[in-house]
Design goal:
It is a single chain. Helices cover 52% and strands 18% of the residues. By secondary structure, it is α+β, with helices and mostly antiparallel strands. It folds into two domains: 243 residues, PAS domain (Beta-Lactamase, 2-Layer Sandwich); 147 residues, Reverse transcriptase/Diguanylate cyclase domain (Alpha-Beta Plaits, 2-Layer Sandwich).
């Protein structure tokens, strides 16, 4: 006959085994879900960040062309077309050409900039066409005789007819420009005077600027990125550097590209097979209509998940065995502490790190309790550290783009509630690329840190964010126009004092800045305030370069 103690021990052992099995299954299922969710977040976040980076480059190109367009428009508003005054026309073209040249020289990847008048205007000149090769200086290039080509000839005159047909600013996706023999993308704005077609203003960009951004994407062990179109085109892939049209693409590739037309939630990954391998992908649509796709093998994505499950199962088995042995030896003493510890463990597994573990017994349960307390302490510290790190720029210590986006979201909530009063200051370090190219990135990083320090001092008491390599944003909340102006003057003075005492750099440190105030009564969005500040910064940058 078994003793009551034996029956009690058997009951406890069975309960422990069943409970451990249930908790283990729940833990594994939850762990699988969490790891899959984290993998999707990692890939989507990388895709989003890289997409924003490329969109930033495209936005800079758009801004350059818009600057030329608005200058050209402002110059001929009120003039009669066609212009019969040759001297006046030459003077006009000289000014526009100068602005275009300056914009192109300050636009990464620009290989050509042009203003082309419509042939039917019978102007005394066709416009201007400036090109450069291998990063050299821009030089005059022979104008393309538009009348000699069919409007459907994309390689020769697509840059002219497509924007005019669209009647709006247009991005031309990668194509081979037959006029200068280069694969490029183009941003072109059609110019109209009422119902009269004046011509186009545009800029051609070396497609390598997109390829370099795509090639910089590394995820897991062999994950990579590529560029595609919405109509089954493959613009760039490491296996197809020159891309593929919908007609040239193989059936396997078409099936993969067709997946990009499917709607999906932002937190999901798309599954597909490539050369017999199971893979996952996610994508984002860029400003110019192209698709940035990031892909990685499913085996690599699930590697951490499988490793964690094995570790979890091994640890669970070990803990169960130890638990059974200790339970047999200490049944009477361990029932109460064990229940408390189990409850605490369940709360921790549920995410409650504020749980209190009061067991102070001087045995295995006491040691386990102390270890769990220490684990919770370390986990809490680690989570706090990760949260802080996620919103901090590693180079300067100010808020990064993630923190900036959170601040903007919070500000937009205040705007929706009618409780927002703020100004946005956009700042950009001049000549950083030149410093990096000639003196190295370590020297450039020192320049960024010095500029950031001056920004923090000049706008003391306000949050500073680094949202790009050389671009910062300061959000001035609840500051009056006079107070905001004083902060800008403090910053300008700080730059002057720094340059006066400068012993680090051979040339002056220049930081272009622009400020814009939120007009709540006008119902404008944060994005519009930012654009006005960014435009003001760009104008300040041009002014600084003229004063240099």
């Amino acid at each position: 006959m078994r003793s009551l103690q034996s029956k009690f021990l058997i009951l406890i052992v069975v309960c422990v085994l069943l409970s451990s099995l249930a908790l283990g299954c729940v833990g594994i299922v939850n762990m699988r879900y969490v790891v899959e969710e984290d993998s999707a977040q990692i890939m989507n976040l990388l895709c989003s960040e890289k997409g924003q980076e490329i969109d930033g480059t495209l936005a800079s190109i758009e801004q350059s062309v818009n600057t030329i367009y608005h200058y050209a428009r402002d110059q001929f508003v009120g003039m009669e077309i066609p212009w019969g005054d040759g001297e006046r026309l030459n003077n006009y073209m000289g000014k526009v050409r100068e602005v275009a040249l300056n914009a192109a020289e300050n636009t990464d990847g620009a290989v050509a900039v042009y203003m082309r008048f419509a042939p039917e205007l019978h102007m005394q000149m066709d416009g201007f066409f400036l090109t450069r090769e291998d990063g050299g200086s821009f030089e005059e290039h022979d104008m393309t005789d538009i009348t000699q080509y069919d409007p459907e000839d994309i390689g020769h005159v697509g840059w002219y007819y497509i924007p005019l047909d669209n009647k709006e600013a247009t991005w031309l996706e990668p194509y081979e420009n037959e006029n200068i023999g280069m694969r490029m993308i183009s941003y072109v704005i059609p110019v109209f005077d009422g119902d009269t077609t004046v011509g186009v203003i545009g800029m051609d960009i070396d497609v390598d600027i997109l390829k370099n951004s795509v090639n910089s994407v590394k995820i897991y062990d062999t994950g990579y990125a590529f560029l595609a179109g919405t109509e089954l085109q493959l613009y760039y892939h490491r296996e197809y550097p020159e891309g593929l049209t919908a007609g040239d693409a193989k059936e396997t590739i078409k099936k993969v590209l067709a997946l990009l037309q499917e709607k999906k939630a932002d937190d999901e990954l798309i599954s597909y097979r490539w050369n017999g391998e199971e893979k996952r992908l996610t994508y984002r649509t860029l400003k110019n209509g192209m698709l940035l796709v990031i892909t990685a093998p499913a085996e690599e994505i699930n590697a951490s998940q499988n490793r964690l499950i094995r570790q979890f199962v091994g640890a669970a088995v070990l803990i169960v065995l130890l638990f059974i042995l200790v339970t047999i030896y200490m049944t009477g003493k361990m029932i109460r502490p064990l229940k408390d510890l189990t409850d605490a463990a369940q709360k921790i597994a549920g995410g409650d790190l504020g749980v209190s573990i009061d067991c102070e017994t001087r045995d295995e349960i006491g040691v386990l309790s102390a270890s769990v307390r220490q684990m919770v302490k370390h986990l809490t510290h680690y989570i706090d550290y990760v949260n802080k790190l996620a919103g901090t720029d590693a180079l300067t210590g100010v808020g990064n783009k993630t923190a900036y986006q959170d601040a903007v979201a919070e500000l937009e909530e205040k705007m929706a509630a009618g409780k927002a009063r703020f100004a946005v200051v956009v700042l950009d370090i001049n000549n950083l690329k030149k410093v990096n190219d000639h003196l190295g990135h370590e020297y450039g990083d020192m320049l960024i840190r010095d500029a950031c320090s001056l920004i923090q001092k000049g706008f003391a008491g306000n949050e500073v964010f680094r949202i790009g390599g050389d671009e910062f944003v300061v959000i001035l909340e609840n500051e009056t126009v006079e107070q905001s102006g004083e902060l800008v003057r403090n910053f300008d003075t700080g730059i002057v004092v720094f340059n006066r005492n400068n012993t680090k750099y051979e040339q002056k440190l220049q930081v272009a800045r622009g400020i814009a105030f939120y007009d709540g009564e006008a119902g404008e969005s944060y994005a519009s305030v930012f654009r006005r500040a960014d435009q003001a910064m760009y104008e300040n940058k041009l002014l600084q370069k003229q004063e240099k």
